[in-house]
Specification:
It contains 13 helices and 15 strands. It has about 425 residues and is of the alpha/beta class. A 7-stranded mixed β-sheet has the order 3-11-10-7-6-4-5, with helices on both faces. The chain has a 3-stranded antiparallel β-sheet with strand order 9-8-12, with no helix packed on it. A 3-stranded antiparallel β-sheet has the order 13-15-14. Helix 3 packs parallel to helix 4 and helix 5 runs parallel beside helix 6.
Length: about 425
């Protein structure tokens, strides 16, 4: 049943189906076990990760073991945020001051921020209409910059052809660090996102796949990198109490050279994350059901393009993106505003000014300007919305109806 009727005076259709009643920032409550864990921990007062007795493992150490097992990685380090995890992954790898580090032009500001925080210089790479890093431009930027590291952002959960990417990086001897803030639980060709490079970084910020308000997880199979990252995180030489840790030999020289840049996760956050990790795969399926409802409803609309996803990609779609071509800035802002009148909250990536969590490369004045015409064209027509698990498939159908209606009226008087 449609929610539109024709206004014969202007030729514009007016939406009559009613405003959406959901909340795009309302997450599900934490599982009861997470709440019980938090209360029990608070009763002990032992919130610091190294406040343990004897051989006891802290909540944070238990989380590290469980996430390493989930990822089939040797090591996991729990951090204060995903951005901090990226920063120390770069530093622990050995990135030097002023060194060029490659990353996506289409990403969120903590990614170039982590590179800057490590003292390095971000080198931005174009994005494609499928919202993944452009491999042809990546090769150009590798050669032009001489960079030896790519911090790859799987932005909004879209995964590039990882087989082709890894072959390209191997050819040019470029190391890969993955930003998996949006791909926890996703995979490419049956291999988990976060298992392709020398290290991977995940976020547990509220709008990610497991929620501790803020938090991050770093995984790696490299003894030296893990030892250095652990020291950077602020282990106070108590690193043997961590959940996954290299042999003492890996720390022998590093412990005299690596500064303490405190960014540990605390036990309270770990306590509420552990029960959520048990539910992750189940919740990934729930997000994807919401995504497919929107995808099916918006595909085929004359003005809307939904990015294609490769059959090798097993995604986790906790947000939804679509493109509308040939929009002026005024039209894009009007479209966002029109959807907002029916309580559908879209983010537009084409704005020249940072807005909330959304920004584009031209507003990151702390890095060298880049000429990125392909990315700029994509971002000019790119819209985004969150899909919290408080939504139902019926909600997503309602959202799609509102978006379709206002997309019909783009360019009309």
């Amino acid at each position: 049943m449609t929610g539109e009727k024709q206004n014969t005076g202007t030729g514009e259709k007016h939406y009559t189906g009613g405003a959406f009643r959901g909340n795009f920032t309302q997450q599900e409550p934490l599982p009861e076990q997470a709440i019980a864990n938090a209360v029990a921990l608070m009763r002990t007062g032992r919130l610091h990760r190294y406040n343990t007795v004897g051989e006891e493992l802290s909540e944070t150490s238990e989380l590290e073991r469980e996430f390493a097992s989930y990822m089939q990685s040797r090591f996991c380090l729990a951090c204060a945020s995903g951005g901090y995890a990226m920063h120390i992954a770069l530093t622990a790898f050995g990135v030097k001051a002023g060194e060029p580090v490659l990353t996506n032009a289409f990403t969120l500001s903590p990614v170039p921020g982590a590179i800057h925080n490590a003292g390095a210089a971000p080198v931005l790479v174009e994005t494609t209409r499928q919202l993944v890093i452009d491999l042809d431009h990546l090769e150009h930027q590798i050669v032009a910059s001489g960079a030896r590291v790519l911090l790859l952002s799987h932005m909004r959960g879209h995964i590039v052809d990882m087989d082709a990417l890894c072959q390209l990086l191997e050819t040019h001897q470029v190391a890969l660090i993955e930003d998996c803030a949006h791909t926890m639980g996703a995979s490419w060709g049956g291999r988990k996102s976060g298992s392709f490079g020398v290290a991977a970084c995940f976020s547990t910020q509220t709008y990610k796949h497991i929620n501790s308000g803020e938090g991050g997880l770093l995984v790696t199979n490299d003894d030296s990198l893990m030892a250095r990252a652990t020291l950077l995180s602020g282990s106070y030489m108590l690193y043997q109490r961590n959940g996954t840790v290299p042999d003492a030999d890996a720390f022998e020289q590093a412990k005299y050279q690596i500064p303490n840049c405190s960014g540990r996760m605390d036990n309270l956050r770990a306590a509420i994350l552990r029960p959520q990790l048990e539910l992750l795969d189940q919740n990934c399926s729930r997000w994807n059901e919401l995504y497919r409802t929107l995808e099916q409803a918006l595909q085929g609309h004359k003005n809307i393009e939904v990015p294609e996803r490769d059959e090798q990609e097993s995604y986790v779609a906790s947000s939804f993106q679509f493109l509308i071509d040939n929009l002026s800035t005024e039209q894009a802002r009007k479209f966002v505003g029109d959807c907002k009148t029916h309580n559908v909250e879209l983010k537009w990536f084409g704005s020249t000014e940072p807005e909330g969590f959304t920004s584009k490369h031209t507003s990151w004045k702390y890095i060298e300007p880049h000429s990125l015409s392909q990315t700029d064209t994509v971002l000019q027509g790119l819209f985004d919305l969150r899909l919290p698990l408080t939504f139902t498939t019926e909600d997503c159908g309602h959202i799609a109806e509102i978006i379709r209606h206002h997309a019909n009226n783009i360019g009309k008087a």
